[in-house]
Design brief:
heterodimer, A: mainly alpha, two-stranded antiparallel ribbon, about 75% helix, B: two-stranded antiparallel sheet, two-stranded antiparallel sheet, 28 helices
Chain lengths: ~500, ~650
């Protein structure tokens, strides 16, 4: 295998963007060049990231592809490494990237070069989050991701983009500051910022609660969990299509990843104590946001609210502390990344043609866009968790796990499955796709173009693969989840002995 | 072979669905129809091999999900129960495919229709061949998807779209129960495979566990949860509201999905899980009561409906109720036997109704029909055969299966058995009445349609009539031929242990020895129903109107389907939307954003506005401020030096 694979993955997108910076902007072909450069870079990054998939030893516990340079010993080191969980999340990011570039091919007409640069930097930061093994390095990537997304929404967004991007920034930054304080405390106490070392460090149970809450503030906003979710609908609505794809597809997963990497294994006692809080918040999120989705008028807002509900499943699964719940939760993150990304792309297709996201402005699209109707149907079904699609496997495993934590947890969360069918089929799909084609401006709309088919085809294939034969994916996370479960249980047992 | 049976329809569906344009209409029709017909022929071979030759087997295809101790496989299980379902599903499906070639001949989307039909067949086959609860759930939701697509097939009709969504969402409520049942089974049994679960059932019985803060009996809870799923799919009382609306779909769909196969999935599931249900008398009692009530309630509504398809839809609902209370009194084989015979005569009635609708150019209201028998004699003949079968006239198939159920209910000593018996007998009377009412209103008397439509009415082409005749043969002979195997002398070898019956008495044996009067009762009721229908609709046609006028509230109550839709709209749909709006505008908008980001932003802005007034631009203001600062700092340090 290639030496320094992770570093290479981090450097590649940046290199692409540096190349873009040096190209002239006033040339007539420069926009086209920027698109091509970004596409080639992201494709190449994806190809390279596949080496992780093939090179990872699934049987072995612990981090692999490790690289380490101590910059400030004990305080900051350039320490990278991945386990099965982070590999799948990195692959999700690198897989969605070329799709985003392609989806922006004609939609973005102004400042194309800068747009592509923002996306490439975004990619580096995302890979960084999922491969950092130093707490401060993680923090840099985690927070750094805010900046390009802030710009993508603020520069290329819709009418209320300024409001949306500030709301987004305000929420996430507030959460992160608390996390930073907690991190500083941890480094001072444990004497290291090294994540693998911290994973074995036993923090005092009374301190754990405070640290847990500080991290929770940050991750709950990122997920987002109810009631700190209100930035998401606004951000999605104003973001350009590809921005929404990355936001829903990858950025939301950083919250879940944070729980897996920090909260659960580092503060096991607090996690167990506060699990009930998470369950209640998650169930409220599922029911509350599903009901809100039921009455939305804006397609993107509807999908944004459905994202909050689906993320509710993820948080339920994480705090079950059992194999099915955790594996289901991680699987649900991947599935939601693909499916919600695809749904935003579906909205993007009609938005590009009619420049509105209002449900009532559409209706009867199946008459002139049968291919689009089919694609949209597939992802709608994946979103409502039809067996045979990726959505089912994640939800099912989460609920199997949740039932073991308490039948009421599964009962509450499963309500979302009923409501999901309501808002996706009754509110969204029926009103947009079915019915008579009555509005005149709809009649000229074209069905999916070749480029759009290229965008959707890999997503459809992945959704079906993950639904029918999820085994390869589950194999990746089996060992890391086992490790995680032992970590969450260690203090429980030692405390019981002490008592 | 079983792989071919299950996957041929899938491949055909993919071919017709994605390459419909290349294949053309005829090509798509041929691919799907031949695939399913082949499947039907193979199914009968499997049936003879497995059910009569006792060669049950299992094929494991691949691993689906594996997480910790949870292992779920893609596997095909073939035993007698499956073989019966294979025959039912594939035979009816093949005939419906052929019929659809004629029925849909004017539709612009024929390949899509055929693809959906084949996709449905595949999902249904996955359901009946499942070897574990999760794969069954795959088929379960798969048929739900196909049903949704087919009900909404005519996507330009808003009513069809609404009905499609309603079917999906109401079924989701059932699936919610079913999936909780699966989770509970995994928690208690540690597996979801049928054989392992059934083997462990006796030792789990009488254990309790915590369910939603109640200490509940394990078996009762699990069975009731599973039964909620069955109620949704099989349109039982409370979750039945989607079935009548589902008639918005093309008629072949109603015959295949909403009469013969999909709606019987709930019956199949309960029968499959008989080793679990047998462990809980409470659950069985619930099944009995719900089934018997549905049989009665749906029949009462069927009495007054005017849409020809809705009458048959409520009839289906009612017949499914019969099947369920048969299961409830542990007469599983009788329930499945009725499922088997019902598939033939109900598909026949639906396809016959389709032929009528086809002849009348999409007219479905029986008030605008009448006198059609001379115009469409073949259709008339098969419809009468179907009606004779459903009303339980001796020698025809319904006679054998329905009588068996009523006798079993009489013979049983289970708590609600007497209730079920009473309801069953009353419903038998209603069944005869509404079935003959349909025949009389449609085919007899003077026509009430306009002359042009009546003159243009024509018999259907052979491609539609031949499937009708084939089903008619089934409706006549299926009962007689298979009676000895399903519930007669050979039943023990035939079922070969796939249905479990605990308890001391063999209910089927008991049922064979009930008093003669009880045995004759259903036939008598059928006769009374017929007589009354003759009186109402042939002899004194003004009588129904007079009666409806005299008992107006009762009539309206039934005509409006006991107001279930209005009830659900008032207590579920409207409040959900109201809550959604409240959470959105009030919760998210006013409270969270108002106190959160918007509130903070407003405060910041306010403070900034106030502090801006400090910046006057006059030099002496700034100089003065600086002076105060310098003095303050100086004082601070000076004081520090003094006290320190």
């Amino acid at each position: 295998m290639i030496e320094h694979l992770l570093t290479l993955l981090l450097v590649l997108p940046v290199a692409g963007s540096v190349f873009l910076v040096t190209t002239p902007t006033n040339h007539p072909a420069s926009d086209e060049n920027a698109r091509r450069t970004a596409l080639v870079t992201t494709l190449f990054t994806f190809a390279l990231s596949l080496l992780l998939w093939f090179g990872y030893d699934k049987a072995e516990a612990g981090f692999q592809f490790v690289e380490r340079v101590d910059v400030i010993p004990g305080f900051f080191s350039y320490h990278l490494g991945v386990d099965g969980i982070s590999i799948l999340l990195i692959l999700l990011s690198t897989f969605l990237m070329p799709i985003c570039i392609l989806a922006s091919w004609t939609a973005i007409k102004t400042r194309v070069r800068e747009y592509m640069i923002a996306f490439l930097i975004m990619e580096t930061l995302m890979i960084g989050v999922f491969s950092a093994l130093d707490m401060f390095l993680f923090y840099v990537f985690f927070e750094g991701g805010l900046v390009p997304m802030f710009l993508i929404i603020g520069v290329w967004g819709g009418a209320r983009r300024i409001y949306a991007s500030f709301k987004f920034f305000l929420y996430t930054l507030t959460g992160s500051l608390l996390m930073l304080l907690a991190m500083i405390y941890m480094v001072v106490t444990a004497g290291t910022s090294d994540i693998p070392t911290l994973l074995t460090y036993d923090f005092d149970p009374s301190v754990q609660t405070w640290l847990w809450l500080a991290f929770f503030a940050s991750f709950a906003v990122k997920m987002p969990m109810w009631p700190v979710h209100t930035w998401l609908p606004d951000a999605h609505v104003e973001a350009p299509t590809a921005g929404s794809v990355i936001l829903a597809g990858v950025l939301l997963k950083m919250g879940g990843y944070g729980f897996i990497r920090f909260s659960l294994p580092m503060f096991p006692d607090a996690s167990h104590d506060l699990a009930i809080l998470v369950f209640i918040m998650s169930i409220v999120a599922v029911v509350y946001t599903s009901l809100v989705a039921l009455v939305q008028e804006d397609m993107k807002k509807l999908i944004a609210y459905s994202s909050v509900a689906h993320m509710g499943f993820v948080t339920v699964g994480l705090f079950t502390f059992n194999q099915q719940g955790l594996e289901g939760s991680i699987f649900q993150m991947l599935s939601h990344g693909v499916v919600s990304g695809a749904l935003f792309l579906c909205v993007g297709v009609v938005y590009d043609r009619l420049h509105t996201r209002m449900i009532e402005r559409y209706g009867g699209l199946v008459n002139i866009m049968p291919h689009y109707a089919l694609v949209f149907m597939i992802f709608t079904m994946a979103s409502v968790g039809l067996p045979g699609t990726s959505g089912f496997v994640g939800e099912f495993l989460v609920l199997v796990g949740a039932y073991q934590s308490g039948s009421w947890v599964a009962f509450g969360a499963a309500l979302g499955v009923i409501l999901g069918a309501g808002y996706m089929l009754w509110r969204l799909y029926k009103n947009v796709v079915f019915g008579q084609l009555e509005k005149d401006d709809l009649k000229a709309m074209l069905d999916l173009s070749m480029r759009e088919w290229i965008v959707f085809a890999p997503l459809i294939a992945l959704v079906m693969w993950m639904g029918i034969y999820p085994k390869p994916f589950l194999e990746f996370i089996e060992q890391p989840v086992e490790t995680l479960i032992t970590q969450t249980e260690r203090n429980q047992t030692s405390n019981e002995v002490a008592r | 072979m079983i792989q071919a049976i299950v996957f041929l329809p899938l491949f055909a569906a993919i071919l017709a669905g994605f390459f419909g344009r290349q294949l053309g209409n005829r090509g798509a029709q041929m691919v799907t129809t031949l695939a399913v017909t082949t499947g039907a022929v193979l199914s009968w071979i499997v049936f003879f091999d497995v059910a009569l030759g006792h060669n049950a087997y299992k094929v494991t295809l691949a691993e689906w999900m594996s997480s910790g101790t949870l292992d779920v496989y893609w596997a095909l299980r073939v035993d007698t129960l499956t073989a019966v379902m294979l025959v039912v599903v594939n035979s009816v499906s093949a005939l419906v495919h052929w019929y659809s070639i004629g029925y849909m001949s004017h539709d612009p989307h024929r390949p899509r229709f055929m693809a959906y039909l084949s996709l449905f067949t595949f999902a249904m086959l996955m359901l009946v061949t499942a070897d574990n609860l999760v794969q069954m759930f795959f088929g379960w939701e798969g048929v739900g998807l196909a049903s949704y697509l087919l009900i909404g097939f005519w996507f330009k009709k808003p009513s069809a779209n609404a009905a499609a969504v309603k079917a999906f969402v109401v079924n989701r409520v059932g699936d919610f129960g079913y999936s909780l049942g699966i989770f509970a089974i995994f928690l208690v049994f540690g597996t979801v495979g049928f054989d392992e679960v059934f083997a462990k059932a006796p030792e789990i019985a009488s254990q309790t566990f915590n369910f939603l803060w109640f200490e509940a009996d394990v078996m009762t809870t699990i069975c009731l949860l599973l039964f909620v799923g069955a109620m949704g799919k099989s349109a039982q009382l409370g979750l039945h509201t989607w079935l009548p609306d589902a008639m918005e779909g093309p008629t072949p769909v109603s015959a295949l999905i909403h009469a013969a196969t999909m709606v019987t999935a709930g019956v199949f599931m309960v029968a499959r899980c008989s080793p679990l249900f047998e462990q809980s008398q409470t659950a069985l009692t619930v099944v009995t009561v719900v089934g018997a009530s549905t049989a009665f309630f749906a029949a009462t509504i069927g009495l007054v409906q005017n849409d020809i398809k809705r009458v048959i839809a409520y009839s289906t609902c009612s017949q499914l109720g019969y099947m369920f209370f048969a299961l409830g009194v542990s007469a599983y084989s009788a329930g499945i036997f009725h499922l088997f015979t019902h598939a033939f005569f109900k598909a026949l009635l639906f396809l016959g109704a389709g032929s009528v609708i086809h002849a009348m150019h999409d007219e479905q209201d029986m008030r605008n029909m009448g006198g059609l028998w001379k115009k469409i004699p073949w259709t008339f003949a098969v419809m009468v055969i179907g009606t004779l079968a459903i009303t339980g006239v001796p020698i025809l198939s319904g006679y054998y299966s329905k009588d068996m159920i009523i006798e079993a209910a009489y013979a049983s000593h289970a708590p609600a058995a007497r209730y079920a018996f009473t309801m069953g007998v009353i419903a038998a009377f209603f069944t005869a009445f509404y079935s003959w009412r349909l025949i009389f209103l449609t085919f007899f008397g003077k026509t009430r349609s306009d002359q042009k439509t009546f003159d243009a009415a024509h018999e259907s082409p052979p491609v539609m009539l031949i499937p009708l005749l084939a089903l008619a043969v089934g409706a006549v002979f299926a009962g007689m031929t298979f009676y000895p195997y399903f519930v007669g002398d050979y039943r023990a070898e035939f079922w070969n242990g796939t249905l479990t019956m605990l308890g001391d008495i063999d209910i089927i044996e008991e049922a064979h020895h009930v008093p003669t009067l009880i045995m004759k009762l259903p036939v008598i009721m059928g006769g009374v129903g017929l007589a009354l229908a003759v009186l109402f609709y042939l002899l004194i046609p003004s009588l129904p109107k007079t009666l409806a006028g005299a008992f107006k509230p009762v009539y309206l109550f039934h005509l409006n389907k006991w107001y279930w839709d209005e009830l659900y709209d008032a207590i579920i749909v409207k409040p959900s939307l109201w809550l959604g709006r409240l959470f959105w505008k009030g919760g998210d908008g006013r409270i969270i954003d108002g106190l959160g980001p918007d509130g903070i932003a407003a405060t910041v802005l306010n403070t900034a506005r106030k502090s801006r007034t400090l910046q006057t631009g006059y030099l002496f203001h700034y100089a003065f401020a600086m002076l105060i600062a310098v003095v303050s700092i100086g004082t601070f340090f000076a004081l520090g030096a003094v006290t320190g």
